[in-house]
Design a protein that fits this description.
The protein has 340 residues and is of the alpha/beta class. The chain folds into two domains: 187 residues, Rossmann fold (3-Layer(aba) Sandwich); 57 residues, no CATH class. It is built from eleven helices and seven strands. A seven-stranded mixed sheet has the order 3-2-1-4-5-7-6, sandwiched between helices. Helix 1 runs parallel beside helix 10 and helix 10 runs antiparallel to helix 11. It is globular. Bound molecules: S-adenosylmethionine. S-adenosylmethionine (SAM) binds next to helix 1 and strand 2. The site of S-adenosylmethionine (SAM) has 22 residues, from helix 1 and strand 2.
Length: 340
């Protein structure tokens, strides 16, 4: 499936999509260092502002449009900042994301954002998508429920031609100790773009556990240090040696901004399953229907031969008619739903 990735950053989402078997046509990213990281990782980076590109040539050629629009207006650090203008991409990248969606008309759209954007997304984004896609879903997923040793809750909007089943949470959680050998037996709090925040003079402040280094400070009895870039990248599920380019500040930002590749892969696989499951069912529908018909015929013959307890043998045809009809209706309803 061919992907156009907007606001691609260092490629956290791109890597997840790649791992799930998707192929990138372009990863659009304005920041020079992040674009250099994308290139070094082998992605087709287009170093540009999303507003400066002409997308018309891509119309009808893209299977998945992935976008992680900037979300300063809703990030927890800016909760009270509100929205200034909807054309201000740095604060709100949604209007441009929708604009590109209307031009490109992808088969699927997968958009990711902070969970605080939910009410805006449901009020503004979902109705626009409903006009373009048969099915639109909004999921809030915590990376810690999907194999990532980090509690990071993100909003996903999935729009496409078929309903997609949300991924099942895994039965156990990976911990910070599992991932980076810090003695903290829970998933880490969210990895931030600087992984360093304020001065923890008041121990109760640590209890808020706003970022991964808070957990590290508690685990090491207050010996606060910044998590290394490698630790942050590992908690984000980037593979060892992922080629981040740029100065230290930029690399922390690229890591902290990323969608954990493992979470992106989980979402991508759910979409792939909907795409492939649907076509498999479509192709085999006549075969499934004829097998069900044969089973039903055998059941009816068995019931005729030995009427169930409590059924008058004289009423057996009416009994079969009632129940077989009901069963047929149920099955045809189920098949119709799978193929729709
Ligand atoms: C939340 S991050 C994306 C993270 C990315 N999806 C990942 O998984 O690594 C948002 C990115 O959008 C980029 N960006 C912001 N405004 C942009 C614009 N107008 N055009 C292109 N990129 C932009 C930022 O530089 C930043 O890297």
């Amino acid at each position: 499936m061919r992907v156009l990735d907007l606001f691609a950053g260092a490629g956290g989402a791109a890597l997840g999509l790649h791992d799930a078997g998707f192929e990138h046509v372009a990863c659009v990213e304005r920041d020079a260092s992040a674009a250099a990281t994308l290139r070094a990782a082998g992605f087709p980076a287009v170093e540009a502002d999303v507003r400066d590109l002409d997308y018309a040539a891509l119309a009808g050629t893209i299977d998945v449009l992935w976008a992680s629009p900037p979300c300063q207006a809703w990030s927890s650090a800016n909760q009270h900042a509100g929205l200034k203008g909807e054309e201000d991409v740095a604060r709100n990248g949604w209007p441009w994301t929708l604009r590109v969606t209307r031009i490109v008309r992808p088969r699927w759209a997968i958009f990711e954002n902070v969970k605080n954007a939910r009410s805006y997304v449901e009020r503004v984004v979902v109705p626009e998508l409903r006009a373009m896609f048969a099915h639109v879903a909004v999921w809030v997923l915590n990376a810690a429920d999907h194999g990532v040793a980090q509690s990071r809750t993100r909003l996903f909007v999935i729009a496409g031609p078929r309903p997609v089943s949300p991924p099942e949470p895994s039965s156990s959680r990976r911990t910070m100790r599992d991932a980076i050998a810090v003695a903290w037996d829970r998933p880490s709090p969210c990895v931030m773009t600087n992984e360093w925040k304020g001065r923890p003079t008041d121990p109760s402040w640590w209890a808020k556990l706003n970022n991964a280094s808070d957990a590290l400070a508690i685990a090491t009895h207050g010996a606060r240090r910044k998590l290394t870039l490698g630790e942050c990248a590992t908690l984000q599920t980037f593979p060892e040696g992922y080629p981040f380019v740029g100065d230290v500040e930029s690399r922390y930002r690229q890591v902290g901004n990323a969608v954990p590749p493992m979470l992106a892969a989980v979402v991508a696989r759910a979409v792939r399953a909907a795409e492939e499951g649907a076509s498999t069912v479509r192709e085999s529908l006549p075969a499934v229907a004829s097998r069900i018909e044969r089973v039903l015929t055998a059941v009816v013959a068995g019931v005729r031969a030995r009427p169930p307890w409590g059924v008058d043998p004289d009423d057996i045809d009416a009994f079969i008619g009632r129940n077989a009809g009901y069963l047929r209706a149920l099955i045809s309803h189920a098949l119709h739903r799978r193929s729709a």
